[in-house]
Amino acid sequence: MRMPASGRPPHLIDEHPTFVTHLECGLTGEVLPADTVQGLSSIGRPLLVRYDLEAAAEAADRATVEARHDDWWKYREILPVRRSANIVSLAETFTPLVAIPRTAARLGASWALVKDEGRLPTGSFKARGLAMAVAMAKELGLSRLAMPTNGNAGAAMAAYASRAGMETFIFCPADTPEVNVREIAMQGAHVWRVDGYIDDCGRIVGEGKEHMGWFDVSTLKEPYRIEGKKTMGIELLEQLGWEVPDVIVYPTGGGTGLIGMWKAFDELEAMGWIGPERPRMVAVQATGCAPIVKAFEEGERHATRWEGAHTIASGIRVPAAVGDFLILDAIRASGGTAIAVEDEHIERCSAEVASRDGLLMAPEGAATVAAWEVGLERGDISRDDRVVLFNCGNGLKYPMPPADRVLDVPVDWARMAAEASADTAEHHA
Ligand SMILES: *Cc1c(COP(=O)(O)O)cnc(C)c1O
């Protein structure tokens, strides 16, 4: 297909109906109207977008969407945006499924693919949720947005909202990766570092509503980021010929992606695009911040706040998630599990996949490789399961170990050979 000069594929120019009917509290089922500005339900829980899925299925079948340009907007019928003009686009793409055969061979596993979300605009899968939230903010006439962020969400919101001419206020924990704070500032946001965790930043956003008149776009505190993240699930199944994998391993912070994919599978089944089969959902957290793993192991439906949270995987350093019950319900309903991994294991997996399979993963993505390894050892995942791992961000955005060896001239070739074999030994350790 030839791309028009606007850079917008036809399904972003033509009008396509959405089959949104209403919003519904994820815990109580309370119904709220669509097409109105909404945050949380009256009891303070996430709102889910509901559709007339029968009508959506009549309007578009699998072949119809397959024929459209490959980006997440191709699923317009089951996305909330009503008017094409409200879609803010940075040329989104399908993200590839990348094999990591050498790592898989070491683990004795036969089928594993990494969905490499680092290829998206702003370098992380946060673009999916924030592009949707910004489009809906535009549709609903909002012009000032605020959020707490560990980095990538703020970067995605800054980029999409600035492009739409909206003002953004973003609050990051003081130890958010430097590159994130700077990219947020560079993409037109007002950004502050805060001495605290992401939920402390979230409190500032909540308190500031009255003073600053902004709309709170925190994870799951508005209904549309989940709708963006659910496209990961639809896209993945389209790529797999509408066959579900056996296992999905997902790095879980606020859990939007896991909740969103689970919602997508139910919607696709209601539309007759897939059957009742589901992947086992595996939530991965770091041992330094594992509230969901703890709640899963203790059989609880809600998690308690994790005190003293710390991990190098900043995207999953979320001490308390408002959608905890939605994450835990999905894991349990799928027959999946929750796994906590050590930072040191994350670093080892990240080095292995980069040096042996050539794929530079975000630490959160490498955490899924570590969890896969733990899952294989524990027997939660078998060696012939078809496994999809999510690399949620581009590895280039994260600090890497130094590489500061300097070559002395004239060259000492024997020394070069010795140093090279030391490198090889290290990469294969
Ligand atoms: C936000 C983020 C996560 C966690 O995603 P949730 O859907 O909020 O659980 C994982 N990895 C990276 C790189 C992130 O930016």
Word description of this protein:
- The chain is α/β, with parallel strands linked by helices and 429 residues long.
- It has a domain at 97-123 and 225-397: Rossmann fold (3-Layer(aba) Sandwich).
- Helices cover 38% and strands 15% of the residues.
- The chain is built from 14 helices and 13 strands.
- The chain has helices at 53-59, 62-67, 101-107, 126-139, 152-163, 178-186, 198-212, 224-239, 256-270, 291-297, 324-334, 343-357, 363-378, 413-427, and strands at residues 20-25, 31-33, 47-51, 97-99, 111-116, 144-148, 167-173, 190-194, 215-216, 247-251, 280-286, 337-341, 386-391.
- The strands form 3 sheets. The chain has a 6-stranded mixed sheet, with helices on both faces. A 4-stranded parallel sheet has the order 8-7-6-9, with helices on both faces. It has a 3-stranded antiparallel sheet with strand order 2-1-3.
- Strand 10, helix 9 (256-270) and strand 11 form a beta-alpha-beta unit.
- Helix 4 (126-139) crosses helix 8 (224-239), helix 5 (152-163) runs parallel beside helix 6 and helix 8 crosses helix 9 (256-270).
- The longest helix is centred in the middle third of the chain and has 16 residues, at 224-239.
- The radius of gyration is 22 Å and the shape is globular.
- The mean pLDDT is 96.
- It binds pyridoxal-5'-phosphate (PLP).
- Residues 124, 126, 152-153, 219, 251-257, 315-316, 362, 364, 392-393 line the site of pyridoxal-5'-phosphate.
- The site of pyridoxal-5'-phosphate has 18 residues, from helix 5 and helix 9.
